[in-house]
Amino acid sequence: MSEQNVEQNIQVRRVTNVQASWTEGPERGAPGHFTIQLIMDNGAEEYVVAPTAEDAKVHIELLKRAETVYFDMTNKVLIPSNIPLG
C-alpha cells in the first residue's frame, strides 16, 4: 500500500497544535465569530471548527486541561483524554 493511501485511511489523528481566532462581525460592535484550527500530527492534517462563543470557552478549556487530544476526522469528534478531575 502506498504512503498516500495509508495517510488517507487514518481516521483519528492526534491534535498537536491549536490556533484560536476571533473575527469582528460585519459591523463594528456587532458580535464576532470564533474559529479554532486543529493541527494534527504535526501538520499532516488540519481542520477548523467554528463554535459559538459559549462553546469556544468549553473547547479551549478542554484543550488546556487534556493531556492528549485526538480528533475523529470521519465523525468530526474532538476526543480529549486524561482530563484531571477536581
Short overview:
It is built from two helices and five strands.
List keywords for this structure.
single chain; 86 residues; alpha+beta; 5-stranded antiparallel sheet; 23% helix; 41% strand; globular
Task: Please describe what this structure looks like.
By secondary structure, the protein is of the alpha+beta class. It has one domain. Helix content is 23%, strand content 41%. It is built from two helices and five strands, in the order αβββαββ. The chain has helices at residues 3-9, 53-65; strands at residues 12-23, 33-40, 45-49, 68-72, 77-81. Strands 3-2-1-4-5 form a five-stranded antiparallel β-sheet, with helices on one face. Strand 2 (33-40) and strand 3 (45-49) form a beta hairpin. The chain starts with a helix and ends in a 5-residue tail after the last strand. The mean pLDDT is 89.
What is this structure's SSE topology?
Layout (H helix, E strand, L loop, with lengths): L2 H7 L2 E12 L9 E8 L4 E5 L3 H13 L2 E5 L4 E5 L5
Antiparallel strand pairs: 1-2, 1-4, 2-3, 4-5
Helix content: 10-25%
The largest sheet has its strands arranged as 3-2-1-4-5
Give unreliable regions as ranges: none
The proportion of strand residues reads 35-45%
**Main sheet characteristics:** 5 strands, antiparallel
What's the total count of β strands? Answer: 5
Number of domains: 1
